[in-house]
Amino acid sequence: MNSDPAETPLAFREVLRSIRRANVRGDVDLMEAPAPTRIAPYAVALDGEIGQGDETAASGRFIVLHDPAGQEAWGGTVRVVALVKAEVEPEVGTDELWGQVAWSWIDDALSEAPHDALGGTVTRITNEAFGDIAERGRTVAVEMRISWTPRDTNIAPHLEAWANLLGSCAGVPPLPDGVTILPGKAP
After folding, report:
1. For the chain, what is the radius of gyration of the CA atoms?
2. What are phi and psi of 18, to 5 degrees?
3. Structure pTM?
4. Which of 4, 6, 120, 125 fits a 20 to 30 Å CA distance from 138?
């Protein structure tokens, strides 16, 4: 990406401003991350995580790509690519409908974020420990890879939706309005 702000397209500057305005749930920690450089001329990436007590319950990455010339596959000039990873209850590993349930969380989260061309995958990863590490038992993780095309450069509702999806995957309900997490306190 060109580092000269004067040469950054107005649309991408709007994307960056809207990210700063996002009202992301207070229990999600965000930090800027290295953005991909080959997919689009302009990009920004954020890593995020949400905890339960001292443990990370879900983590992921939120990337906004901008190509002023547009890309036919995107159906626009801006594309959001998101990832969410979470450890879930072992029963999820055997529930055939769980992927559809998780996908419904995406639809719910994006209901206030105007978008097109939504696509992605929901993957369940089941691990069973044997031998000297058998006491670890069985663990199940979920990984969601999603992308969509925002209808405008206001990315704030898209970032908020992704943060809410992190919470859904982590099993952490949204905080009521006016309630915030104090540093060092578990929800």
Report:
1. 18
2. -70, -35
3. 0.85
4. 120
